[in-house]
From TrEMBL:
GO terms for biological process: proteolysis. Coiled coil: none annotated. Gene3D superfamilies: 3.40.50.1460. This is Caspase family protein. Residues 12-202 form the Peptidase C14 caspase domain. Transmembrane segments: none annotated.
Length: 850
């Protein structure tokens, strides 16, 4: 008879379950779930945690109060339990509180914002209008940073449904920041992915109610395979849980896969004996599951569960009937009989991995989480027998599908479309919105010009929305913020915008304009205060083309800088795409998702091998020049940039734009500052690629219009100061460029405007050349109030005065490269910025620059 395993005396657990919500819909399963998990925790064959080290915080522990704000468990109960574990007798945080901490929370939940897995559990005192909550992943992050435990296991069975008028708040409970996160293993498992609901139900009629995920979680802990050393680990439990979720029909029924995040190194939960535990059969849940989500108003909000669930067998591990190829199953590879010698040759089986997104990144991981193959869209690979995981990524969306290779061919499919975040209200994305997608598509279709010609004036469609907007609600801040959006021409003069405000209370605004060809500036002022700033992005408009701009908003109730409003338009993450008038696609058209998938892939820090992506993007370039820009951006993300490829893509896209445009004379195309068909980004990229390849620059420079993409500005600014393209871009910048995001974004002080052309031509210098020597100390003190061109000129002035004792405008080496008028205006601006602090001996003269 085997000895009873020793208890893990350094392990602790906190279980918080909320059944009773006076201000929300009550639940029946959370306490049952916590009790089931507790049974495994204290079992010597399970977690082996001493019973006195498991803290349970349940609704049933407290009488029902009269005032909902007196309901328990409250956030103070959670903090009190944490304090008991982590504080010493002097109420100072311990250096180390234990080996492992289990955190289990069940009840109503929500999420908000753009963080992928950031669920928050409503505590019992929460109301529909007062979202008191515990952001448990953020607590785990803080405890890991403080190094309070070696391992943290966080399990949350609650919804991650979006509630856009709420915000997930950082904990007020703050252990010391010790930067020890890299030494702590953190395992996290959630009952539903971002934007989805979690459900509870009784498996048998009249039986106890359990959360679907909690039931699967406890079953996976008991029945997961052990590794080669007999340990049940975080990896094997995760694999088992996902297999149980799929085989029980819950994946088909809910349409989602619970997110389970593994630590950098496996956590060993417990060691199995020689006799494996037999899993109990999991019955197919009924269709009347109750979502664990907050009610909207006085009635519970329900999410439809997809029907048509395929039949499953009672015994787990059996493949689905009727499949043309065997589906992935768990149950180890065939064992070699005792006394025999295993063959040396590893047989490989063909595995086809399919997704519903042509641009999804596929990564195949072996059981040690090593990458063995990658691809885009679909992947065919030959693998030896064993366990694997197919990881699918698109932008900030990630799904994983475990599978096992035996001896026959296998097809592994991504269970659903990848729901990445997007400023476009596309269907099947994480930020789609029931009150925004329909109106956006309707307005786009109304704007289609079916009888347009290449000379039909271009049009600009701007759809601004707040994807966090509460359906049916009204947010005055959102409506007011959208009214501060304006369109300006190249000289920053306001242009008329037709506004459709019919559904402004639904968190969106539609703007339409028909400006002339060229680059215009979409400008948004962050508040009505005098000291407010404007954020701006350049937008290119061509005759014969409809340019669409989709912008999402961010709602910030806390952590705002002084003077900032609650709503911020996320211009840097805007989606800008142009189409021929007659080919303007519907919102649900495949090319719309493909183009935005490219944007999402480029915005993601993980791109991987871009070869297949570039090929797909180039194929779309014939429809939209934006696809060519995304293709080049992906090329530039590779280790060794193929500048011949960059040059070829840019030239082909410009040729396509020229073919679609009305004929222009050769002289007009070569003339500086003249409009040329095609985004200015492509012209700049041709010049950059030609320079990199040592070829003569064939593009007429300087550019007359500002590029849209941030990476084009980054490339140009990497050139030595004074180079032709760098100075040309300095001339076009309105003020300071903001880093971050795909779109080039600029900050402009409120009220600042470029002078018109007439005043520029009439401007005369305010200081004589010899006066600049006295201004050098003031020039050195200037900061971000300068424009980039002024910054370049300031550097030349300081260098000349330091070397020669005086400033000679004739030696500025800017004349002929950019207009003398612009240089003159920049000098006058510098003088005005420095004159208040300059010595009184400086005189003002009207001397014309040579």
């Amino acid at each position: 008879m085997s000895a009873t395993p020793a208890l893990n005396t350094e392990d602790h657990a906190i279980l918080l379950a909320v059944n009773r919500y006076p201000g929300l819909t009550p639940l029946k399963g959370p306490e049952n779930d916590a009790q089931a998990f507790r049974a495994w925790l204290v079992s010597p064959q399970g977690g082996a945690v001493p019973e006195q080290q498991v803290t349970s915080i349940f609704s049933s522990d407290h009488p029902a109060p009269v005032d909902p704000y007196d309901e328990r468990p409250a956030i103070k109960d959670f903090h009190r339990a944490l304090d008991r574990l982590t504080l010493d007798a002097q109420r100072q945080f311990k250096t180390r509180a234990g080996r492992r901490l289990y955190l289990f929370l069940a009840g109503h939940g929500f999420t908000a914002g753009a963080i992928k897995n950031d669920p928050a559990l409503f505590t019992a005192e929460a109301q529909a209008y007062d979202a008191v909550h515990i952001a448990a992943p953020r607590y785990a992050t803080r405890m890991a940073d403080a190094g309070l435990f070696d391992e943290i296991v966080l399990v949350m069975d609650c919804c991650q449904d979006f509630f856009f008028t709420k915000e997930v708040m950082n904990p007020t409970w703050t252990p010391p920041a010790r930067n020890l996160s890299n030494q702590v293993k953190v395992f996290q498992a959630f009952g539903a992915p971002r934007g989805q609901a979690a459900y509870e139900e009784a498996v048998a009629e009249g039986g106890p109610v359990h959360g679907n995920f909690s039931r699967i979680w406890c079953e996976a802990l008991a029945s997961a395979d052990a590794d080669d050393e007999g340990w049940v680990t975080s990896d094997t439990v995760r694999r088992r849980a996902l297999r149980l979720w799929k085989d029980s029909g819950l994946q088909d029924k809910t349409g989602n896969v619970p997110p389970i995040d593994l630590p950098s190194e496996d956590i060993r939960f417990y060691r199995k004996g020689s006799t494996p535990q037999t899993p109990a059969a999991i019955r197919l849940p009924p269709t009347n599951a109750i979502p664990r989500m907050e009610p909207v108003g006085s009635t519970a909000r329900t999410t439809a569960i997809r029907t048509g669930v395929r039949a499953t067998k009672d015994a787990l591990g059996a493949g689905s009937a009727g499949a043309s190829l065997p589906t992935a199953v768990f149950g180890g590879p065939p064992e070699t009989p005792a006394g025999s010698v295993a063959p040396v040759v590893l047989r490989r089986s063909e595995v086809r991995i399919e997704t519903q997104d042509d641009l999804a990144h596929i990564e195949v991981l072996d059981k040690h989480l090593h990458t063995v193959a990658t691809g885009v869209g679909d992947l065919i690979v030959k693998l030896p027998a064993g366990r694997y995981t197919a990881r699918f990524r698109l932008g900030d969306a990630l799904l994983e599908e475990p599978f096992q290779v035996l001896s026959a061919p296998l097809v592994v499919r991504c269970p659903q479309r990848l729901r990445f975040s997007s400023p476009v209200p596309l269907p099947d994305t994480a930020t789609t919105h029931e009150y925004q997608s329909g109106p956006a598509d309707h307005l786009i279709q109304q704007a289609r010009l079916a009888d347009a010609t290449p000379r039909t004036p271009g049009q600009l469609l701007v759809f601004v929305r707040a994807s966090q907007h509460a359906p049916g609600g009204r947010d005055a801040d959102v409506d007011e913020a959208m009214t501060r959006l304006t369109l300006r021409d190249a000289q920053h003069q306001a242009l008329p915008l037709d506004q459709d405000d019919r559904d402004a209370p639904s968190g969106w605004r539609f703007l339409r304009a028909s400006p002339w060809e060229g680059v215009h500036w979409l400008s948004w002022r962050d508040s009505d205060a005098l000291e407010a700033r404007s954020l701006e992005i350049p937008v290119h408009v061509s005759d014969g083309q409809t340019t669409q701009v989709f912008v999402d908003c961010e709602l910030r109730d806390t952590l705002r800088l002084p003077g900032e409003g609650r709503v911020r338009l996320r211009l840097a993450e805007a989606s800008i795409v142009s189409w021929p008038h007659a080919r303007l696609p519907a919102l649900q058209a495949p090319e719309m998702r493909l183009i935005d998938s490219l944007r999402s892939r480029l915005a993601s820090p993980l791109v991987g091998d871009a070869t297949a992506l570039v090929d797909k993007a180039v194929g779309l370039a014939a429809v939209s020049p934006q696809a060519a820009l995304y293709a080049i951006g992906l090329c530039l993300r590779q280790g060794n940039v193929d500048w011949h490829q960059v040059l070829g893509i840019a030239r082909a896209a410009l040729a396509q734009a020229a073919a679609q445009a009305a004929p222009m004379s050769a002289a007009a195309l070569k003339a500086p500052f003249a409009y040329r068909p095609g985004p200015p980004d492509l012209f700049a990229l041709v010049a950059i690629a030609e320079k990199q390849l040592g070829q003569p620059i064939s593009i007429a420079l300087p550019l007359s219009e500002a590029p849209q993409m941030a990476f084009v500005w980054d490339l140009a600014e990497a050139w030595p100061t004074g180079e032709l393209l760098e100075l040309a871009l300095c001339r076009l910048e309105t003020h300071l460029r903001v880093s971050g995001g795909l779109q080039a974004t600029f900050v402009r002080p409120n009220g600042w405007q470029l002078p018109d052309e007439v005043s520029l031509q009439m401007a005369t210098p305010l200081a004589a050349p010899e006066d600049w020597a006295a201004l050098v100390p003031a020039l050195k003190r200037l900061g971000p109030q300068m424009t980039p061109l002024q910054g370049v000129i300031r550097g030349r002035i300081i260098a000349q005065v330091t070397e020669h004792g005086r400033f000679d405008a004739a030696q500025l080496d800017l004349q002929g490269r950019i207009d003398a008028v612009d240089v003159r205006h920049a000098l006058n601006g510098l003088y005005q910025l420095t004159s208040e602090t300059a010595p009184p001996s400086v005189t003002v003269e009207e001397t014309v620059l040579g």
